[in-house]
């Protein structure tokens, strides 16, 4: 086991890693920017190192400064969390070259699965269902036209690297295709430093279902069932739940096992998430593989009882997975709401500033993952998520009721948050009956805005 882990991240995920490391008897080092110098999570680390100014490009994305901090504090491993450098294969390679363990996959596995084109090829080989689309990167306009005509419109042009909705364009007929290719390439190049794009069939109606997997350095890989992340706005997830409702058990197990097989074939170590879209006929198509811990990992932890972060640390230290596939049992239903410092009534405008009041809910089956407390100042430099509210119930109906009750108890002010929106969404017919797709939140908000105009 490692003696000291450096955490190359901030906020709630940094605190989550500190807690897991402490339980394993491992010391922690937290790097931080000037904007985070008063971050409450820093108080829980054994050592802290400032690595630069507030902008992430000058601090949390500076590989040289993070490596220097690890070397000067004698950290023997680095956990990247999510975001920032978590899916940067070059960063993993630098760690390897400096003889510092990267708590995650090898650079080779990350490169194979992180690039959507190579990942599609591996998924096809593993029997994981994929979308009809181009076999690789689209380089010529004639090839794009031919692929789109073969699979039929609408199609979607997607960046081979990255995610979060960037480098994506929906194309409904040939007249839009060439312009969409060029704009997607430009956006992908600017966002990810890689302008490669490919084409897939686009689903008008789709649910977003993902499979949580774990792998170790001994060739073992398991799945921990699935989550539904359909409730999203502009490709950003709002509410996640597990297991995914309305998926027949036999189909769920088949898709989950194919995902584990894909992870195993990549010789993958750590936590990985295979993301799928599911159509009205329960057909699954793989979107991508996230080669890191997910924001919504607590949902899986609540329904399986498996500590994903501790498993990541153990596996990166060379230990085999502590559980076999037969040990993974589903228990009840869990829901997570991402609490963002945003004002939904003003176009989701970010709400940086002082949090004068922060009273988190509690009670049976309620979990709050947050770095915030009363008196904390939300900086303007980073993602707006300030907390994750997670509940567990014996079934989905109880989980929904428990979440709505927990939201009513949660007090944050004076800044605005997305809590009222979550409470509203959880009470809609579409959510309660899981009769929704990835665009239902946007349609609902647009309809309500028109009604109030």
Description:
This protein has 453 residues and is of the alpha+beta class. 34% of the residues lie in helices and 25% in strands. Helix 1 (11-23) links the parallel strand 1 and strand 2 (27-32). Helix 4 crosses helix 5 and helix 6 packs across helix 7 (174-192). The chain starts with a strand and ends with a helix. The model has no long low-confidence stretch (mean pLDDT 95).
Brief descriptors of the model:
8-stranded antiparallel sheet; single chain; D-amino Acid Aminotransferase, Chain A, domain 1; Dna Ligase, domain 1; alpha+beta; 453 residues; Rossmann fold; 5-stranded parallel sheet; 22 strands
By oligomeric state, this entry counts as single chain
Largest pleated sheet: 8 strands, antiparallel
Distance between the termini: 60 Å
CATH class of the largest domain: Alpha Beta
Biggest β-sheet: strands ordered side by side in the sheet: 13-12-9-10-11-14-21-19
User: What is the number of helices?
Assistant: 14
Radius of gyration: 21 Å
Mean pLDDT: 95
Q: Give the full name of the CATH homologous superfamily of the largest domain.
A: ATP-grasp fold, B domain
> How many domains?
3
Percentage of residues in DSSP E strands:
15-25%
By DSSP, the count of extended strands is 22
What is the 3D form? globular
